[in-house]
Amino acid sequence: GIQVEQSPPDLILQEGANSTLRCNFSDSVNNLQWFHQNPWGQLINLFYIPSGTKQNGRLSATTVATERYSLLYISSSQTTDSGVYFCAVDLTGGQLIWGAGTKLIIKP
Amino acid sequence: DTGVSQDPRHKITKRGQNVTFRCDPISEHNRLYWYRQTLGQGPEFLTYFQNEAQLEKSRLLSDRFSAERPKGSFSTLEIQRTEQGDSAMYLCASSLEPLGTGYEQFFGPGTRLTVL
Questions:
Q1: Which of A5, A26, B81, B95 has the most beta carbons within 10 angstroms of its beta carbon?
Q2: Tens of pLDDT along chain B (116 residues)?
């Protein structure tokens, strides 16, 4: 089955720093989503981005489908950005296959 | 639109008891998904429905797990004869039927199950 790998597994930054999170996947996909899971467990949709580039405030994402990777950029980090960031992909319009996540800690 | 809702938010039960969780999707969404998430891991797909039809159930973890969506609106996930290994967060998501290849899943807050 398709493999989804995220890097780095852990990231600790000072407030105001920028970061890049990576998601590699092993097969062509129909769907790719980035999520932020807050400390209470809620999954928050960041981007639906099977290809191309999108931006939303301090966050942006790029997926290069032909090379099977996606990047999530966080600029000017805030403590509220802390949490786990997941990449999830789908082949067939049904189940999402998830990476193991990147745990981000932003220190004040 | 209040988003995906799940009930209860927390459930503590004793080993061997049956539990049932409810999920109400976003009102116009015809697809509904169940996932399980254990500590430190990404979510794991269990099953999904399009309207009332269960399109994939081979990933349900055992025959103790079952899901229904009888009227194509809310769904229930039942775990019979719970075991301590069933302790996890159970997540529900919904989406519109894909247009071409495009769709986006939206998640509820989850039900955290603890089996003593």
A1: B95
A2: 579 999 999 999 999 999 999 999 999 899 999 999 999 899 999 999 999 999 888 888 889 999 999 888 999 999 999 999 999 999 999 998 766 556 889 999 999 999 99
Which residues in B lie closer than 8 A to residue A42 (C-beta atoms)? 107, 109-110
Chain B: closest CA distance from residue A23 (Å): 13
Burial A28-54 (b: 16+ CB within 10 A, else e): ebbbbbbbbbeeebebeebbbbbeeee
Which residue do the tokens 């999170």 mark?
A: A21
Residue of chain A whose Cα is closest to the Cα of B106: A45
Suggest the residue from B9, B39, B45 to mutate for an interface test with chain A (most A CBs closer than 10 A). Answer: B45
Based on the number of CB atoms within 10 Å of its own CB, is B107 exposed (0-12), middle (13-18) or buried (19 or more)?
buried
